[in-house]
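Bench log. Compound arrived from synthesis this morning; before running ITC I wanted a structural hypothesis for how flavin mononucleotide sits in the protein. Inputs:
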Amino acid sequence: MSALEISPSVREAIAEEVKKYPEPRSALLMALHFIQAEIGHVPVGIQRQVAELLGIRPIEVREVVTFYPMYHEHPVGRANIRVCVNIACALAGAREVVEGIEARLGIRPGERTADGAYSIEEVQCLGSCGTAVCVQVNNDPYIENVRPERLDDLLQTIG
Amino acid sequence: MAHEPYLLPPPGADWRNLEAYRQIGGYEAARRAVHEMAPEQVIEEVKESGLRGRGGAGFSTGQKWSFMPKPGGPKPSYIACNGDESEPGTFKDRQILERNPHLLIEGLAIAGHAIGARAAYVYIRGEYTTAFHTLSAAIQQARDAGFLGERPFGIERPFDVYAMRGAGAYICGEETGMIESAEGKKGQPRKRPPFPAVYGLWGCPTTVNNVETMAQVASILRRGASWFKTLGMPTSTGHTLFGVSGHVERPGVYELPLGTTLREIIYEHAGGVRDGRALKAIIPGGVSMPVLSAEQVDVRMDHESLKQAGTLLGTGGIVVMDETACMVRAATVIARFFRHESCGQCTQCREGTGWFHKLLKRLDTGQGTMDDLATIDRVGGYMEGQTICALSDAAAWAATGFLRRFRPEFEAHVREGRCPLPESFRP
Ligand SMILES: Cc1cc2nc3c(=O)[nH]c(=O)nc-3n(C[C@H](O)[C@H](O)[C@H](O)COP(=O)(O)O)c2cc1C
Ligand code: SF4
Ligand code: FES
């Protein structure tokens, strides 16, 4: 996997993004989103290429990748299931949702299934407290009002 | 109280569509401001309306704008519009972004004229995929219609709006954390002074305003400051979007005048406490704000009344908890959040948020001592007013707020060596 390259279409999207700002570096967060949407994570080799595109040092990319919870330096599941465990979701049974997914997939938060299909993450408030429990797969639109007793349906829609 | 909503469309209306938005008079206020009003007049109108920021701190918007330098200085000015919305319990800006994006864009165009900005950058939290795409599409429509770009509304002063995304860090909602993040860096807040009005985005004068605040501006210019002042309370004017979540029958976002009682919001609009249970506790404005107990439910939801009640309006995100909910556990979940989100620059905050979480977790599981309660109070004292940003204060208010309001329940955990509420939600 060491030979990963930023694809031409992502390069183009980054070049477009750079035009919005007085300084190219401001496009960094968006650039990382584009890359992650395509390859699922942002490995160190790719970080170097991003640094080159934006005219900054690789460490400046890496400190951003590691600061922000949404970026992954190492592979996660193709469906990374992110469950909000903050207060409104906790009140609505977020712990039971996490445990239900754990039991069905046989993994804990931070782990990945052997086939690379799924991983689970506990996340902080997603801004969907009125429709708790809120779940987000990768960076897709939210799955709202998730109930512990309806998890089979949930996993079916994700799978 | 009679009140017609103006921030969100009525059921059935789709104001994401530019034509539909124009049919209700959309962009006329911006056109009028740009052509017929001097920038100072716009600022005066917003000051006159009494509008206070909807991002949490409640600062006067007109006054904030008047800190910006006069146009024509050596550096361009910018607007950084805060759509990070990560304060737990808060989910209102998303409604504007997803359902009424043109109201925000119009507000930004008006603000851009008032402060002579070159552009506005709307920083949207990374998880808000639908909001980001909806706003981006609306921006393109407004550009195509000639409301943004090189000659907005036909005048010779370029102004554009750009949407950008965060990546999951709460601290990027803090105004200088957001500026750092928008520059492509870690979202670590800056020391002030200099304030953003002097040294903001890319070192240029910048005004930071919340998404809802900007939507309010468009409404004020459309209908006038005197109309706005008829809504709400004398020093907390206008409507706001109250988010109601937790143990209520109908959670959701309700547009109501500031000063509406908490009782009315919970029992009339949100349908009351779920399954007819008893009310126990209410967080009034996002988890940073000290919790209220059920006896305080008649408080009005405005800046002054909540201050008198020992808390703050914050973001107006109301979290309701019924009699089954353990208060030590609620405090623990919230402390876990602050520990996770502290950016680590200040010792008091980095260490203090860790201490809170550790002590509360211990209390929740029945391993805590009476000394731990004293430690929470003491640590809270070290954390307030000492740090680069207010996350530290917020963490302290939340933890000590629960302890102060529900001390007997904390003590019961110590005495009984376990949580006395077996039916509570789990952490
Ligand atoms: C830790 C922290 C997080 C914040 N998060 C947000 C946020 O997500 N959205 C927001 O509008 N303001 C947030 N604020 C408040 C901003 O710093 C700033 O006061 C606000 O965006 C100003 O806009 P306004 O005057 O229109 O309210 C936060 C403040 C702190 C200390
Ligand atoms: S108070 Fe906390 S979050 Fe704010 S700058 Fe200091 S360490 Fe970072
Ligand atoms: S607490 Fe889960 S979305 Fe806000």
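What the model suggests: Residues B 53-57, 59, 82, 84-87, 171, 173-175, 208-210, 213, 389-391 surround flavin mononucleotide (ligand 1) (CB under 6 Å). Helices of chain A lie at 8-18, 28-39, 44-54, 58-67, 87-91, 94-105, 151-158.
ITC booked for Thursday regardless.
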